[in-house]
Every structure is written in structure tokens, then in C-alpha cells.
């Protein structure tokens, strides 16, 4: 038997990838519904090469009889509509930050903590972690299994697609305007993003960290281990797709670089590209459209008793968002939970 699946936010950067990846990975769907705001009702979006879906308006959409709904339309839309969909018996896989830290909502990276899905029926909601968290925990998990991680220091280099279609347009328009010597006021980002960097993603909190930085800390702990300390600086960079991270990891026990490399190579969903002698390492341009998380520049941190420095890159729209959500959908099917 196949499933009836809705994608909410289907006209967006992540929603489009959700439809593409549902099709690419052969998700057993009998029917797929594309849902977005009233503004988009009647537009068409692609599902695979041959099928187009007519977009439905979210306020008019009936979740009765829908088995799975993948949401990527922002936290306020998820806050209002995910419980309505869940009340109809549909399992919501939510890409927003709205439900991630609720204790009875599983926060899942399928390669790491699929067992958390067992509790999905408590709320009928599964949260997809933040894009920067997902790629970092994918690299941390095999290392944590090797020699317990105690502390992580991370600086991110996050592409504009993480902020949606309008953000991608803003980078394009500002870049073009620069060459034409025209002025373009920032609208999506708080500062100009073309030829610039912005150390400000999501809002500032009382302790002067941003909410994005807070998310990396609390989500990593919820997924991996509540004992791990995480401190982050999150930076938006003028890259269209692909997030990068410089990650410094401290361990309770000694770790050899070669053992770390082996553990990373053996972990599903991680590819090691690390040949400094040949100048081989991953960049965001290399990872666009890929499913894997790429780990490069693995080296010993000589400033602490046991530590490693890493460079971690992934397609933020894929493993960082849509792919992880679709993998959760497959896992729910595999575990007989849907
Ligand atoms: P729409 O295109 O109709 O505005 P992105 O992250 O690329 O900006 O995409 C956001 C997605 O969320 C789009 O599909 C957008 O639909 C959808 N969305 C935004 N606001 C709402 C809303 N109030 N109701 C339903 N969908 C929404």
C-alpha cells in the first residue's frame, strides 16, 4: 500500500527539494499534494521529471486521510497548522524550529537516533533539526562513539538558501547591482550580503548569542548527548547553496587522527575528502545536489590534551533540510510507524 503525502511550503527552496527527493528516493506515495500560501494556489510545481502538481492553498487544505505531511513554511505556519494536521492522525515532519525542543517531539537524524521516532505518536510531530546542526552531528556521531566528546567549538559559513528563495534573489540582485554601480537596500538580511559576511542569523537572545547559535547547542545535545558542551558563531556568507563549518572537537580520551578518519569513512552518509598533499578538500560548490556530508581537513588540535579540528560541508537544502526530512519519512515506513 502506498501513502498520501503533503508537502507544505512546496513553492519554497526546501519544499521544492522535498518533492524532488521524495521522487528520487522512490518514496512509496500513492498521491502527493503540493501546498503553499493562498498566493500560490493554482500554480504548478514539479514532482519528478514528468509530473506537475497544482498547488493548493493551506487554509483550504484538508489533512483528513493524509498519512504524512512534510512542512517547510516557517515556524509560525508550523505553529498554527502542524497541530491541526496532527489532530487528523497525519504525522507531520516539520523543518521549522517551532517544535524541536518540545520534550515529547522527537528531533531526528535517521543515521544517529532513529529510535527516538518510537515516540512519534505522542504528538504526531517529528522535528527536523536545523541545517547547521544536522551536518555537524553527522560528523560528530562517529567521533563520539570512538572517544567521548566533551566540548565542541564551531564557526559556520552558511549559504543564503538557508533563508529561502527571497534571500537567494537578494544575493543575486545585490551582486548584479554592485557591477552596475547601483544601490540595493537589504530587505531579507540585516546588512548587505553581496561581497560581505553577516555574523547574525535569526534574532539576538539575552546572552548576546543568536538564536541560530543557541539552536546548534541545544539541538546537538538533544540528538547526541546532553553532556556535550557546544559553543557556536553562525555567519551568513555570499554562497547560494552549501553550508560549511570549522569544527573543533575535544574528547575525554585520546584520539588518533587515523582512527577518526576511519570512523568517519565508515559512517553512513559521510564522505571523507581529505588529501592535503594533493590539495583535496570539499567546498560548498562541490556539495550542491549531493546527499552526503563531506568531512575534510581532519587534523589534531595541538592546543588541548585530546582534540581534532575538522571542516564539514553539506548541501543545506538536501541533508540539511529536505533529504533528512524524507529520510525520516522512509524510516517511519520502515519502522511500521505510519
Ligand atoms: P508561497 O510561495 O505561497 O509564499 P522559502 O523558504 O523559499 O521562502 O519558501 C517558503 C515556503 O513557505 C513557500 O512555499 C511559501 O509559499 C510557504 N509559505 C509562507 N507563508 C505561508 C503561509 N502563511 N501559508 C502557507 N505557506 C506559506
Key phrases:
about 350 residues; alpha/beta; Rossmann fold; Dihydrodipicolinate Reductase, domain 2; 2 domains; six-stranded parallel β-sheet; six-stranded mixed β-sheet; 8 helices; binds adenosine-2'-5'-diphosphate
CATH class of the largest domain: Alpha Beta
Mean pLDDT across all amino acids: 98
Q: State the helicity in percent bands.
A: 25-40%
Annotation, overall tally of beta strands: 14
Proportion of beta-strand residues? 15-25%
Q: CATH homologous superfamily of the largest domain - what is it?
A: Dihydrodipicolinate Reductase, domain 2
Number of domains: 2
Topology-level CATH name of the largest domain: Dihydrodipicolinate Reductase, domain 2
Our count of helices gives: 8
Between the first and last Cα atoms, what is the distance in angstroms?
11 Å
Strand order of the largest sheet: 5-2-1-6-7-8
Amino acid at each position: 500500500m502506498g501513502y498520501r503525502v503533503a508537502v507544505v511550503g512546496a513553492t519554497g527552496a526546501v519544499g521544492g527539494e522535498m518533492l524532488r527527493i521524495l521522487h528520487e528516493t522512490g518514496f512509496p506515495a500513492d498521491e502527493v499534494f503540493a501546498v503553499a500560501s493562498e498566493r500560490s494556489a493554482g500554480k504548478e510545481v514539479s514532482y519528478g521529471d514528468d509530473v506537475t502538481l497544482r498547488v493548493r492553498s493551506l487554509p483550504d487544505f484538508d489533512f483528513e486521510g493524509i498519512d504524512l505531511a512534510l512542512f517547510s513554511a516557517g515556524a509560525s505556519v508550523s505553529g498554527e497548522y502542524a497541530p491541526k494536521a496532527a489532530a487528523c492522525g497525519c504525522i507531520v515532519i516539520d523543518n521549522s524550529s517551532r517544535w524541536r525542543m518540545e520534550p515529547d517531539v522527537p528531533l531526528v537524524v535517521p543515521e544517529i537516533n532513529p529510535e527516538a521516532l518510537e515516540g512519534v505518536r505522542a504528538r504526531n510531530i517529528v522535528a527536523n533539526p536545523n541545517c547547521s546542526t544536522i551536518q555537524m552531528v553527522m560528523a560528530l556521531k562517529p567521533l563520539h562513539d570512538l572517544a567521548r566528546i566533551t566540548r565542541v567549538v564551531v564557526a559556520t559559513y552558511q549559504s543564503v538558501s538557508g533563508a529561502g528563495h527571497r534571500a537567494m534573489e537578494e544575493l543575486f540582485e545585490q551582486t548584479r547591482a554592485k557591477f552596475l554601480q547601483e544601490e540595493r537596500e537589504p530587505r531579507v538580511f540585516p546588512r548587505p550580503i553581496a561581497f560581505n559576511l553577516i555574523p547574525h542569523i535569526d534574532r539576538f537572545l539575552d546572552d548576546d548569542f543568536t538564536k541560530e547559535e543557541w539552536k546548534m547547542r541545544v539541538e546537538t545535545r538533544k540528538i547526541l548527548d546532553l553532556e556535550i558542551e557546544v559553543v557556536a558563531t553562525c555567519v551568513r556568507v555570499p554562497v547560494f547553496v552549501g553550508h560549511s563549518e570549522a569544527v573543533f572537537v575535544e574528547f575525554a580520551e585520546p584520539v588518533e587522527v587515523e582512527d577518526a578518519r576511519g570512523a568517519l569513512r565508515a559512517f553512513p552518509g559521510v564522505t571523507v575528502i581529505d588529501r592535503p598533499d594533493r590539495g583535496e578538500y570539499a567546498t560548498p560548490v562541490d556539495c550542491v545536489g549531493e546527499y552526503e556530508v563531506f568531512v575534510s581537513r581532519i587534523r589534531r588540535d595541538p592546543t588541548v590534551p585530546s582534540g581534532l579540528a575538522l571542516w564539514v560541508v553539506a548541501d543545506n537544502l538536501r541533508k540539511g533540510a529536505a533529504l533528512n526530512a524524507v529520510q525520516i519519512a522512509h524510516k517511519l515506513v520502515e519502522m511500521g510507524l505510519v
